[in-house]
Structures are given as structure tokens and as C-alpha cells.
Amino acid sequence: MSIEALGINKRFGDFVALDDVSLTVPSGQLTALLGPSGGGKSTLLRIIGGLEDADSGVVRIGGVEATDLPAQRRNVGFVFQHYAAFKHLSVYRNVAFGLEVRKRPKAEIRERVHELLELVHLDQFADRLPSQLSGGQRQRMALARALAVEPKVLLLDEPFGALDAKVRKELRDWLRRLHDQVHVTTVFVTHDQDEALEVSDEIVVINHGRVEQVGTPDELYDHPANDFVMGFLGPVT
Ligand code: ADP
Ligand code: MG
């Protein structure tokens, strides 16, 4: 399902966090929201997901106006940098949680959870506790949990941000392959240029609450719209 966030404005007191920002993600696409810290990425993601209200603007998910729907009714999956797993529940139960809450039949839950654990390569770890997983494995569990209830869209806020460089690189390749299998419309927030360039179909560069450029990784890299984008994408020294 497509995502449209059109003409979004958001202030915190006098501070303008988002200044007439628009973002359109076609169905099945993986879009990176890229920019430096404080640029408004998380705020925009939270507005799309219904965790925060915009001052003005419209959010549509699958063409249906969602602006006034609470997060629970938008059918979105979230993954954040610091994932709050249920510490006392197994990996299996963590992934099953959303389905159990929805009172799906036991056999259906079992099948779906095993499918998902296979998808994120954690089928060997179903009985472990989250504390017995590595950081990278935990974020994969978070993705499985977010996907369990078949969300219309997936919203990822720096999901690999707390991990070391090597694991981050592994997970970005892995997220791309996962997305090619699942095709769920995804917005992926990151401040890491390489991550955005390698993982996404399209990149929206956002800085100081404004969209600087929208384009494919190649378009941005070959034709940066302005000095900011050029500097931001340029070689990291
Ligand atoms: P990013 O995710 O790109 O780092 P954020 O969307 O988190 O940026 O924040 C954008 C700006 O809005 C930052 O300057 C931040 O301090 C400010 N901000 C975010 N949330 C709040 C809030 N609840 N109250 C006040 N200021 C906020
Ligand atoms: Mg953020």
C-alpha cells in the first residue's frame, strides 16, 4: 500500500520541526529518509505512523486518509533503534505476541511465526530469550515481530543505529533481500549515507525540517540538487 504524507507542518513551541514536507512512497517501495540528526526524520515517521499529530497536512495509507486515525488503527509495523522486547518471553512468543493479542487460532500462529523466524534466519533461536541473542539478531526479531500482523506499511527508525559497523552492513544487505521477498511498503530512517544508498529504491533527503532532494540513489549521487546534498553524500572523512 502506498504512503502519502502531504504538506506536513509540525512545530514544537516556536521551533519548526517540519516545514511543508511531502513524502510519497509507492506501494512495495523501500524509501530511505536520510539526513543529519535533528533534521525531522523521526518526527515525520511518527506522524506517518500516528504516534504524533501534525499541525497541518494529510497522511494517506493505501489511498485512505489516516490523518485522524490512532496508531493502532493504521496497521503499521514499527521498528526502533532500541527495541523493547518482552524480556521474559521467548523469541517465539515475542514474535507471536501481536497474533495472540488478536486471538488468531493457535495452529495459524505457529505456522506464521515459524515462517517469519525462517525469513529472518532465527528459526534455530525460537526458544531463546531476547537476552541470549546478539544485537543484530534482536533487531531481526523486532522485524519479524513487526511483520507478524501483516502491516500495510513498515516504518523503521534507525533500526541498526545502535549496532557496530560490521553488523550494520550485514543487516542492511539482509534488509534489502528481505524486502525483495516481502515487498511491504517501507520507510527507513537513517543518518548513514551508505546505508541509504545501498538499501533503498528512493531516497528523501531531509534537513532542518525541509526536503532537500528526492531521487533514486544513482540520481542523488550523480546529480545532487544542491551543495547540502553534495556535501552530505560526499566522501565521509
Ligand atoms: P531526527 O530524527 O532527524 O534526528 P527529530 O525528528 O527527532 O530529528 O527531531 C527534529 C527536531 O525536533 C530536533 O531539533 C528535536 O530536538 C525537535 N523535537 C523532536 N521532538 C520534540 C519534542 N517532543 N519536543 C520538542 N522538540 C522536539
Ligand atoms: Mg531520529
From TrEMBL:
<keyword id="KW-1278">Translocase</keyword>
<keyword id="KW-0813">Transport</keyword>
<protein>
    <recommendedName>
        <fullName>ABC-type quaternary amine transporter</fullName>
        <ecNumber>7.6.2.9</ecNumber>
    </recommendedName>
</protein>
<dbReference type="GO" id="GO:0015419">
    <property type="term" value="F:ABC-type sulfate transporter activity"/>
</dbReference>
<dbReference type="GO" id="GO:0016887">
    <property type="term" value="F:ATP hydrolysis activity"/>
</dbReference>
<feature type="domain" description="ABC transporter">
    <location>
        <begin position="3"/>
        <end position="233"/>
    </location>
</feature>
<dbReference type="GO" id="GO:0005524">
    <property type="term" value="F:ATP binding"/>
</dbReference>
<keyword id="KW-0067">ATP-binding</keyword>
<keyword id="KW-0764">Sulfate transport</keyword>
<dbReference type="GO" id="GO:0015418">
    <property type="term" value="F:ABC-type quaternary ammonium compound transporting activity"/>
</dbReference>
<keyword id="KW-0547">Nucleotide-binding</keyword>
<dbReference type="GO" id="GO:0043190">
    <property type="term" value="C:ATP-binding cassette (ABC) transporter complex"/>
</dbReference>
